């Protein structure tokens, strides 16, 4: 399989994708419809965990299941042909010389598959989409063309399984829940309305209807196959249905009703005779409704060419406009591939971390990290609404510095775990600061730190080590003060709570305890003695960054801050405590006890200079401590940072009798935080290249092979090496490695990390995926868990803010490009179009002498053709940008030359 891009929007074309396994493509909208389609239109559609239109699929179901959005064509009353290739005889020819040519053309949220049968003299085309206009439907346009020189009689029958219930029921009362189905036929389709729901919500009356409707301007179905077993027949199946062998066909009529069976969207259309080069066209809508009337109205409006084609164009235009960052470099494939990377954070906002075939875990929604990392991409594409989103997200922080782990559907909605499962990820406190930092620099909005929000409250207290037995669900899920009032604190206070509690939450080597896990969820077996040096680095970075914000706020005249009286005890004090593990643990334990049920509600005033000094002292201590204790070397002379201690209290990384043990995460955060010295940057790159880099699978592996099922560190070591968290090329951390290298001005090395991943993923013959970035690349080079990965946000942010060097600094637009000479086009230019300060900007870098970033510097800037500045500070003040006219594209030209 090898795809080709068509045009500049990222649309692509691929021949014979049906010869590549595990392919799927997302079709969704922002109203809750989440579908996916394979090249043979397998996959599924759902609104949530409890509302699956089709049977839920996992990755193996894509090629083992017989369910699909099948469309049958009976030719001259005898030949049966599947437009999706799902007949048993077409399947048998898949690897023969008689294989039917298949092609897929796709772009954001629209998909077209073409199949040709030369020996039958017929070609079928199926266009699929979910309307961006918000209707709760998935649409198909079916076209069949007679490519022979003879007249043909064609009859079309759809066969789309209607599962119509919770994913839980796939093997939990699968048959029993079919007894709830009430099935009926209407003039344009088949409707299923279960009487009740059987799922984790209990036995409740159901109010959702599902249906398949079809027709065109002049026709509606002439018959229906509403019951799956009646269609497949005794001994038959969906790839060889017995009903279609009857002569004539014997479908049910209109207004037929039954119940208690698996349902099918089987629509039978009138047989028609068409001449050479003629076509017949039908439209199918698969929809959801809170009533049958709503369902019918939503679907029937699309059963004509004008409505479908209009929706097709609207959907294409909508998503192309939403993905409003565009690149132009010397590599046009990279530029168009980046369109898909930029699109992926939008997919994760819709699908969460579930609801695509590889993402077959959880029950929907996003995780804590996702809330913050998806905002990174939003800040590059559409910052409107991000401010309130960030404020609302802070409502998930607990007073003990941990956070809610069940995220509701609404913005800022966090839910207590009704199963009272204690799980603390010790890295969770890192990400809110990183996103807030980018937001403040992109917007200049330091004032967000003084906004207020409540704290999350449930039974879990003392960072997961105890239960608040006084708390009940009736108390609500917000922290209360002594007088039963909901307590609110500033966003600054929330950040302080997260990062200061982490400073004191240390193990026996004076690094933060790993607890349930860190960024790598599979490091989950070291909750007692495990420690994460890697994320201790980042907590140090955050403390330093908070101090920098306080320094800038002082310049703006803000010199005092309110914090909860209880939080005050985490500040200042005796600095000799920093080296005393027991005393640090006592400070944290006392604080957690004071916040265990309610807090006083009293506020303390703290001076900014005092707080700033405290934060810097803590950050400096962390940096010094890690530099002194965690640098390791191998016999080859390579050096790197140890990032973990296991549950036996042993240092994880270094050289052992089993060989070199090295983890990429440890290097990423020592570099990104600044813990690694400038000299150590080169050492870490050498070690990473020697022990972790594998070009043939996309770049930097997550770790070396430990040759051990390491039960004192995490389940990842039970995975075969080279898969998922155990030694795969994990896109998220590979991307962050590139980001960290760019931050340390290692341009060529950062480029190498990012482009290794791009080179592999964009080579679809190796990665075997459609355009975009997967969660990881497995040992065989296949891209796995496509689309829903935080790597996409980090990749986009890194390309814009580090590679192109276009970023904010307290609201002003700063230029610090690190583009290599090979990234400029044949005119020696590279550009990016984006929105900054609410203005449409196109930044063009000109590099006439074809120089690299270690040689060139900025020598001039022009704004809309007028010289803006020559020499001095290479930035544009926010006020000047805000004065530019709206609704216009503003061109900024930046000249690069020898300084």
From TrEMBL:
Pfam families: GH94_b-supersand (PF06165), Glyco_hydro_94 (PF17167). GO terms for biological process: carbohydrate metabolic process. It comes from the Bacteria. GO terms for molecular function: glycosyltransferase activity. Keywords: Glycosyltransferase, Transferase. Residues 615-804 form the Glycosyl hydrolase 94 catalytic domain. Residues 77-303 form the Glycosyl hydrolase 94 supersandwich domain. This is Cellobiose phosphorylase. It comes from Lacrimispora celerecrescens. The lineage of its organism: Bacteria, Bacillati, Bacillota, Clostridia, Lachnospirales.
